[in-house]
């Protein structure tokens, strides 16, 4: 099994660039969680690494998890290998400001 090329720090930087100011302060796993080890316990969005349909390249993106499956924006399932929980949004985003 291939491992993701992005480190936790790279992912935090990507989340910060996407407007999540608290990305570097978020509590969460320090390492990617393998789907062989466990799946998320709740429905929601997670940062995931997955293999393309050709099985040749690894990508990382925010995907939805529900009923034991990860889904992309195109409603297609993905062969996810690793995932971690997203940080909580910044406080001003939670209040709708």
> Could you describe the largest sheet, including whether it forms a barrel?
5 strands, antiparallel
Helix content: 10-25%
Rg measurement, Å: 14 Å
Q: Give the tally of structural domains.
A: 1
Task: State the strand order across the main sheet.
Answer: 1-5-2-3-4
Structural class: alpha+beta
In what range is the share of β-strand residues?
A: 25-35%
How does the overall form come out from the CA principal axes? globular
Overall number of strands: 5
Low-confidence stretches: 1-5, 21-28
User: How far do the termini sit from each other?
Assistant: 43 Å
Q: What is the average of the pLDDT values? A: 74
Would you kindly provide a written description of the structure presented here, covering whatever features stand out?
There is one protein chain. The chain has one domain. The chain has helices at residues 8-17, 91-94, and strands at 33-34, 44-51, 58-66, 69-71, 79-85. With 97 residues, it is an alpha+beta fold. A five-stranded antiparallel beta sheet has the order 1-5-2-3-4, with no helix packed on it. It contains two helices and five strands; from the N terminus they run H-E-E-E-E-E-H. 14% of the residues lie in helices and 30% in strands. Mean pLDDT is 74; it is low at 1-5 and 21-28.
